[in-house]
Structures are given as structure tokens and as C-alpha cells.
Amino acid sequence: LVYYLLRKAKGYSIEEHPVVRSIVEIRLYLEKIRPIDKKQQYQIQKLIKASENATSNTGEKEPVASNKSDDVSKYRPNPNNLISKVEPTAEDGDGVYHPPKFAPTSMGLDKSSKQERNSSRRDKEILKQAKQSDFIRSLVTDMEDRPEE
Question: Taking the domains of the chain in order of start, what are their residue ranges?
């Protein structure tokens, strides 16, 4: 980038110069890295804040980690966090699972019988068919005494 600016300042031609290709390539890399940087920004800020707190508390710089496994182990899940911290109650003391008990309910007391439901369903179907019938429609239009279109 500095070489490019130097050539521009001196008035040299930069057309088809390898530095232009290199700058375009670097720009492409930066554009591809931008979404990754956005995703990691929170974690980076968190680490920076932690390091600032550590240096301000101890008064000296934090030593660099000796191996990569220490850094990786910081971010893996901690199995101890999966264990419940709540003390078991007296009811659960035997260690056996007891499913919850539900009160029994009766399902058909307020409902009509099967024959009544079928007859009402049949009546509704007959009424629906009658409304769609041409004969019934013509009777209704004759009874309304409206002028024909």
C-alpha cells in the first residue's frame, strides 16, 4: 500500500503494475474475513476486557500461554456445570423415578350419543345439498319478488 502511494506521489504509472493486483488481493481477503470478524467480535472484546482487568489487578502484564492446549481448554464445556446444584428433597430420596400422577377424567358424560351426532350431521349435509340445489334456488328467487336480471 505504501509502495502504491509512493508511485502515485511521484507520478509514475500504476496501470498493470503487480502492486495493484496485490492490493486488490488484500482487499478481497479483508472482505472475506469481515463476517468472521463480526462473529468473533464479542469474544475478542471479552478477552481484551479480561486481560485489562488482569493487568490492572496484578500490576504487571499477563504471561503468554506456554501451550495451545491451555487456551483451547478454556472454551470447552465444563461437565461439572451439568450436575444439579440443588439438594435432593425427602420425596426423591429413594433414587427411583416416580412419574407424576394425573387425576382420571371422564370423556363422554356431557356429549350426545353417537346416533344423535350422526343424525345431526346428516341433517346438516341435507341442508347443505338443498342450498346448492337449482330447484331450491329458483323457488327462493320466485318468493323474493325481485326483478330478474
Answer: 1-61, 115-144
